Amino acid sequence: MSTHATAATAAMPAPDQERGHRRRIIAGYFLFITLIVALAVHGFDYYTMDATQRPFSPKHMALKPSGAVGVKLGFLGLTMFLVIFLYPLRKRWGWLQRQGNSKHWLDFHVMLGITAPFVIAFHSSFKFAGFAGMAFWIMVAVSLSGVIGRYLYSQIPRSLNAAELSRKESQDIQQQLARELTQQKILPESDLRSLLHLPSPERVERWSILFALVYMLALDLSRPFRIARLRRRAISFGEILLTMGGFMRTKHVALERAIATAREEASLSKRILFLSRSQQVFHLWHVVHKPFSYSFALFALIHIGVVMMMGFF
């Protein structure tokens, strides 16, 4: 392994840190989903009520934007966005750079970016008109672009040197995986070809950036279904039922090893094929995501300032 790869491996978080991080992320999503579901169940009749009738609802004083619950949701949303903007600030503030792992920070950044629009939607009691509505839809655009950005982040290295290193090492690993698949006698070669089938590099280069991104997403979304099809062709009908149509792991160690190898080679082949396109989309994504983020921050600050000056809380 190269010096670069060795250094990168040394910088990776320990397995215990990764497990702890995953637990915190899962707990965070669980808490936010629980909060959103609880608000939806409790306030369903209020939020679906006509705006002219809401003041007569017994829940109005609590759930309106300036109500006891609504204003707390506003403060929660504000806190979430302050934490969200710590991630770009971390790149410029040396003290923050030394705190934790960049990937972990990104995972929390994405989690808050996904859940914050829901919190703000309940804070506004789903009234998106006027200035506040404009800020909300900008926030939704930021959140959606952030999800796309996180996907692209996982597809490409962070620098050109790392990209070339990643391409070479990935190709070496891919060749090793291909040899392992050739030697295995569990999965039919025709089935493996359907899983590993990709367009030619020349064809990918002719595609537009948008089409290449959509195709990448389609490959990743369809892979679990193709993996399930591989399992179904290798197991009995009873096992198909027990594995939920092949989507869950079986008890056949050799089969699961072959499937894991096939899945890994399919993922590597796709990343190698789309590496240059991924870099292009990622650079374009920065052009879109950052201005939207800063625009939303400005709109949010103006909204908070106006609300405070008018004495709503």
Structural class: mainly alpha
- Could you report the average pLDDT, rounded to the nearest whole number? 78
Number of domains: 2
> Major beta sheet, specifics?
none
Number of strands: 0
**Low-pLDDT segments, ≥5 res:** 1-12, 159-165
Number of helices: 15
Helix content: over 70%
Order of helices and strands: HHHHHHHHHHHHHHH
N/C terminus separation:
60 Å
The portion of residues forming beta strands comes to under 5%
The Cα radius of gyration reads 24 Å
Q: Please tell me what the overall shape is.
A: globular
Features:
mainly alpha, 15 helices, 313 residues, 2 domains, single chain
Tell me what you see in this structure:
It is a single chain. This protein is an all-alpha fold and 313 residues long. Helices cover 79% and strands 0% of the residues. The chain folds into 2 domains: 158 residues, no CATH class; 125 residues, no CATH class. Helix 8 packs antiparallel against helix 15, helix 9 packs antiparallel against helix 14 and helix 12 crosses helix 15. The longest helix is centred in the C-terminal third of the chain and has 35 residues. The protein is globular, with a radius of gyration of 24 Å. The termini are far apart. The N terminus is likely disordered.
